[in-house]
Amino acid sequence: MSEIVLKGLVLRSADYKESSKMLTVLTDALGKISVSARGATRLKSRISAACQPLVFSEMTLSETKERYYLKEASTLETFSGLTADLKNYALGCYFLELLDASCPETVEEPEALTLGLNALWLLSEGKKEPQLVKSAFELRLMTLLGYQPETEQCAACGKAKPDVPALDLRGGALYCRDCALKALAERPMTLDEPSLLAIRHIVSAPRKSVFSFRISDSGLRRLSDVAEGYVKEQLERSFRTLDYYKSL
Ligand SMILES: [Zn+2]
C-alpha cells in the first residue's frame, strides 16, 4: 500500500457504510478523485473536519488497487466567511457542483482547482461583487476545460466590433445580431459593450487578474445572464445548487 500527500478541496461528501464517508475531492496532483474516509463520522475522528464540502486540506492518502483512503488531514482553508451569509454559502455550493460536473475524473486540472479556490476566497472575504465572481468563475472554468467562447470577431462577417454583438451560447461564437439572424437557427444572446469587454478579459487575462475588472451594474447583469446560460448550454444540464441560490 503506497502513500500520497496532496492538497484537495472537498466537492462532495456522502455517508458511506457505518461511520464512514465517501468524498469527491478535487486535488492538485491527481485531479478529481473519490476518497474513502473511514470512521469520519466517529466522535474522536481526527479527519472529520477535513471531510466537509468547501474544506481545503493537505491530505495523506493510502492507495490500494481499488481506491484511495484518507489517512490524515490538516485543514488549510475553510472559507468560514461563507457561513455568515446564506446566499454566499449557496453560491459557494454551486461553485463546487460546477467543478464536480465539469472536471473529468483523475485528469490533472491544477488551474481549475486554483480558479475555484480563488473564487471561493473572494466570495468568503467579501472582496468582490458576488455576481462578478460567479460570472468570471463560470466563463474562465469553461475556457480552462476546453469550452472557450470565440469572441474576437463576428463568426460570419469578421467584424471585430459588431454593431450589436451577440453570443451564440450553443456554438460559443460571437456574431453581429444581424449576421446571427441569417446564420443561426436559434436566437443568440445579445451583449452590450461592457459585457463583451468583460468576457474577452475573463477568457484571456493572466491567471492572477481574471477577477480584476470593473463593469457597470447593467453590464454585470448582462454578463451574468450570458455566463450562466453559457454553462448550461455547454454542459447541457442544470444545477440543483444554482436553482437553490436563485430561489433565495
Ligand atoms: Zn457580422
Describe the structure.
There is one protein chain. By secondary structure, the protein is an alpha+beta fold. The chain has 2 domains: 2-77, OB fold (Dihydrolipoamide Acetyltransferase, E2P), CATH 2.40.50; 84-148 and 183-247, de novo design (two linked rop proteins) (Up-down Bundle), CATH 1.20.1440. It has 7 helices and 8 strands; from the N terminus they run E-E-E-E-E-H-H-H-E-E-H-E-H-H-H. It has helices at 86-102, 110-125, 130-144, 177-183, 193-204, 217-235, 240-247; strands spanning 2-16, 20-27, 31-37, 56-63, 68-77, 165-168, 173-176, 189-190. The protein has a 5-stranded mixed β-barrel. The chain has a 3-stranded antiparallel beta sheet with strand order 7-6-8. The model has no long low-confidence stretch (mean pLDDT 95). It binds zinc ion. Zinc ion is lined by residues 154, 156-157, 159, 162, 175-176, 179.
